[in-house]
Amino acid sequence: MRDLASTLLSWDRFAVASVVAVRGSAPRPVGAAMAVGPSGEVIGSVSGGCVEAEVYDLARTVLETSVSTLATFGYSDDTAFAVGLTCGGSLDVLVQRDSSSLRAALQASLDGHPVSVRFSAEGRTFTESWMPPPRLLVFGAIDHAAAVAEIGRFLGYHVTVCDARPIFATPERFPAAHEVVVDWPHRYLASTHTDAQTAVVVLTHDPKFDIPVLTEALSRPLAFVGALGSRRTHLERLDRLRAEGVPSAALARLRSPIGLDLGGRSPAETAVSIAAELVAVRHGGTGLPLSSLSSPIHRTQESHGTDLSQRRRHAGWTVARPAPGHADGVPGTQCGQVPVLLGAGEVPRDARVGVGTGGG
């Protein structure tokens, strides 16, 4: 729902449908939302198309009656046009009207504050938690950075592009970035708050820029640290980082050359390759074609292993030997469907909805 916040707050009234439970295979995860505005306009999605029309009708009814409802949608094979999930799973959808407390929560989330909100319907209570978006720090104001900033923003990151050269680091060159900073990369990173969800992408492939910033980045518990460059550049970079005293365990976290092997060469294609690795690390994917796997498409539990090569071995694929300095078993962020209870302390970065135990 947080992804729809700007539009929701611009409407004088709305009804919003949220996925609160998923069983089996379903096209959208817990937390996916769709909203209907005062004139019948619709934004968002709860099923990717399977049950959107039925949920839309429910939202229109809730908009008129202000009575929340909880609906279950399951597999239907009667007809291609029946209301049901053709993927074979089922999901529960909570539909509710806007309220002053919900609007306040959405505004607080847009302002960058962590928020938990509680919803009740038909004797069940749910909480949904929204954390500030993860940060993507892109170092190097080259043409590839514009494409990386654009796809990073599309993926929901708060994107910063940083370069020490003011002639290149301009907002006009990077319109998709939330911030464009003129500073030495290592100095900016040293003075910037990061956390375990932050991703760092170094595109300079110039030792005077990338060695200091990578030294700083690899000293922090970040979600992702990657660097652009050829395999020869990577090996030379490792030697320089060792000379700076970066320990082997930290060097093993460096994803270089950055990106998955997609075969592309243009800045846009390179950005897709980098984004693909970011998504795989973030959600525990293998990076392999889905057509070659027999495992469930939508994961409901943490995947086996934390590095792409470990996950590929579990999938039964032969894995190339890791390049020097790029060891297996690198810690990565896992993002399981964990129920979140109000006031439970730390919550996942993404919106999660879970069954609560109390009322009101």
TrEMBL record:
Entry protein name: XdhC family protein
Disordered, as annotated region: 291-313
Chain ranges of the XdhC Rossmann domain: 136-278
Domain XdhC- CoxI: 13-74
Lineage: Bacteria, Bacillati, Actinomycetota, Actinomycetes, Pseudonocardiales
Transmembrane segments: none
Domain of life from the UniProt record: Bacteria
